[in-house]
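RECORD TYPE: inverse folding
INPUT: structure tokens
STRUCTURE:
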């Protein structure tokens, strides 16, 4: 476990002091005030856990399964302590200005389960709640809710072949984003983005994974009726893959 030594710029964690001070405490992880009731703590815990386990829109852009698992682990550790009055009181005693103080001889409350995390936000597109430091990147492309753009996207779907990868290119260009932005925001490998857009079925994984990639891709662009594209494209990919067996 990393501990914080406020008197030493290098501190016991080995991290720069500025990085240590930026690390979230349990209240920040659960997005509640330090005087929150147990009911408020539990409600916030359940809400956040639902987001991280059920794939809410806020997850699009979170950097991979490792980061997701880490956030869930932090959430569980925070709730385990703050939901217990005795452990919460001991934890509160160790907070100094919202920062966990240096290890003392009797400190063992989270020796096994908690390790503070330093998030790595993407660029400047980081959104955080009023208290929480759990980083979530922008979930949709800029301007994608524009009414005129939505009409153009719908028209492109009517005019184009929704089972062909070229429709993805058309929709992406209408929104005004490039492949690199799609990759950065959705965490889909660039190889798969190019494979989908160019009908390079030989570069793509199994259909179930591609359907997930396409949903993330199209959600980022805020494409209406995206399941029509997903289904049409998946049918062609599945037929091609079946023919390779």
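DESIGNED SEQUENCE:
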């Amino acid at each position: 476990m990393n501990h914080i030594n406020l008197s030493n710029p290098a501190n016991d964690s080995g991290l720069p002091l500025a990085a240590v001070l930026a690390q979230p405490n349990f209240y920040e992880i659960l997005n509640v005030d330090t005087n929150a009731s147990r009911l408020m703590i539990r409600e916030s815990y359940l809400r956040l856990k639902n987001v991280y386990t059920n794939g809410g829109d806020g997850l699009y852009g979170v950097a991979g399964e490792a980061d997701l698992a880490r956030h869930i682990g932090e959430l569980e550790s925070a709730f385990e302590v703050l939901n217990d009055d005795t452990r919460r009181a001991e934890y509160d005693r160790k907070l100094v200005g919202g920062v966990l103080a240096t290890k003392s001889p009797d400190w063992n409350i989270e020796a096994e389960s908690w390790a503070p995390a330093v998030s790595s936000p993407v660029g400047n597109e980081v959104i955080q709640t009023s208290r929480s430091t759990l980083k979530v990147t922008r979930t949709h492309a800029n301007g994608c809710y524009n009414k005129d753009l939505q009409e153009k996207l719908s028209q492109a779907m009517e005019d184009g072949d929704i089972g062909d990868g070229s429709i993805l290119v058309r929709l992406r260009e209408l929104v005004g984003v490039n492949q690199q932005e799609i990759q950065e925001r959705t965490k889909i490998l660039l190889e798969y983005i190019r494979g989908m857009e160019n009908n390079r079925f030989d570069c793509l994984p199994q259909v179930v994974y591609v359907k997930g990639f396409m949903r993330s891709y199209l959600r980022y662009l805020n494409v209406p009726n995206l399941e029509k594209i997903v289904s049409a494209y998946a049918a062609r990919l599945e037929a091609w893959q079946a023919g390779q067996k």
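NOTES: The chain has eleven helices and four strands.
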